[in-house]
Amino acid sequence: MKFENIGFVSTRFAGIDGVSLEANKWAEVLEQNGHNCFWFAGKLDRDPEKSFLVPEAYFHHSKNQWINEQVLGKKGRKHSVTDLIHVLRSWLKIQLHNFINQFNIDLLIAENALSIPLHIPLGLSLAETIAETEIPTIAHHHDFYWERGRYSVNSVNDYLQMAFPPKLSNIKHVVINSEAQEQLALRTGISSIIVPNVLDFENPPLVNREGAATFRRSMGLEPDDKMILQPTRIIRRKGIEQAIELVKELGDPRNKLVISHEAGDEGFEYVEWLKDYALEHRVDLRIVTTPISDPWNGNGNYQTNYTLWDIYSSADFITYPSFYEGFGNAFIEAIYFKRPILINRYATFVRDIEPKNFDLVVMDGFLSKNTVHKIKQILESPEHREKLVNTNYEVASRHYSYSMLRSKFSAIMNDFLGEPDQQLPSKSLDQQSIIYPNVAKVEGVAGPRRQGCSCSNLPKALDNAGDAVPSAFP
To answer: Is-contact 52 429, C-beta < 8 A?
Structure first.
């Protein structure tokens, strides 16, 4: 068996969130090794010829948001909620089968879709598809539901035990830090391997100086301004108020704090508070509000003026004061672009990254005068800065390069191929005869190439929960 065609599955592959970026890196390495990569999600900005878009798979879709409102923070689950979960599960499972058939997928890579229940029906449908087809699957876990307080009270524990993650013999589990590996084994008995986030350190980034200069001008920065970059989403656990504190303590009006990602994934209350907090501390805060494309995907299906690499190239210093991270894309990206960084000693950093002996400015939950003094020295001494960033690049190239990822892929693929030879079930699916529990037979449902399909066109047999939850359906 050769894994020629590989299908990535998640709720979103678009923009510059950590899961989308890391999936692109995996796809780049796999394609360099001769594989073909295809994409299934509810929001996509990938090559349309290799994409299967199903809007209901997006975690912000209205039906999924309604489900989450009914099951998170609550102990009991209404029958109508269960019905809608299974309506979407059945529909998404049909589309997953269509995706596998259309692109002749030999191996699935589930990107966080079996880890954290942002989209419960998608996780259930994916787990059932993997079980039914016995297709070899890599479950790439970026964070688990037990690591997030918002999932501590819920009415879907039965589904969490079934699919987040599922325990199936044809799944190889990959985590991004050692704590996740231990907790996964302790809680589920599932073994896994650690594959940290990576970048192509064998090939230094190509800096688009014109793009970087254009970005600085678009943010209203003067030539002598220093850009302090916070390259993260605007969510509470990123600790962005500490970046505001830093700029205040540096005491130089030329320092401008720029946040590269927009708010919205977890609401807008925090970003409004940050704006007020910066105003109170007389810190010049600027937030990027135009779409930013990732460096591997160009502009995708969206017209954007800059890539994430343009933003890093524009920065003079990076802040990363997160309280919690699964690994830390911003950390590895700052090292790749040879930018000095302030990093909070979050648990994964302390355990997995700090022992590698990087030369970093660190804080332990608060900004000390000594920390601020070190940052001032770096900003004022080009020689010190150059030595520091070159040392960090060398360390990272030994531990977080594409060559490490290639070796991990090789081990996983060999593990699949080294199992006793078994004839995998045919990937073709006769939809005329497939039977789904509690759902009437579906005839003639097929996902069109590239666009996928929407359950606004669901057969009436699948739309049988409409009367129970009218607010969730048009």
So the answer is: no
Whether the per-residue pLDDT at 153 is higher than 70: the answer is: yes
Contact of 92 with 439, CB cutoff 8 Å: no
Nearest in space to 173 (alpha carbons), one of 156, 186, 191, 158: 191
Q: Do 383 and 409 sit in the same domain of this protein?
A: no
The set of residues, in sequence order, having a beta carbon less than 8 Å from that of 257 and lying 6+ positions away, is 228, 230, 243, 244, 247, 278, 283, 284, 285, 286, 319
Residue 220 lies in a domain: yes
Domain match, 332 and 444 both: no
42 with 19: CB under 8 angstroms? no
Residue 472: pLDDT over 50: no
Count each helix (H run) and each strand (E run) in the chain, helices first. Answer: 15, 15
What CATH number has the domain bearing residue 136? 3.40.50.2000
**Could you tell me if 424 and 298 lie in one domain?**
no
**Amino acid, res. 329:** N
Does 307 share its domain with 337?
yes
pLDDT digits (tens, 9 = 90+) for 182-227: 999 999 999 999 999 999 999 999 888 888 888 999 999 999 999 9
> What is the span of the domain harbouring residue 293?
209-400
Question: 153 — phi, psi (to 5°)?
Answer: -115, 120
pLDDT in tens, 160-184: 999 999 999 999 999 999 999 999 9
Which DSSP string do the residues of 23-43 spell out, in sequence order? HHHHHHHHHHTT-EEEEEESS
pTM of the shown model:
0.83
Q: What tokens appear for 255 in the block?
A: 């320092």
pLDDT of residue 76: 95
CB 308 within 8 A of CB 15: no
471 within domain boundaries: no
Looking at the structure, do residues 174 and 213 belong to the same domain, yes or no?
no
DSSP category for residue 221: -
Domain count, the chain: 2
User: What's the rounded Cα separation, in Å, for the pair 26 and 75?
Assistant: 38
Instruction: Give the end of a domain, one of 383, 400, 417.
Output: 400
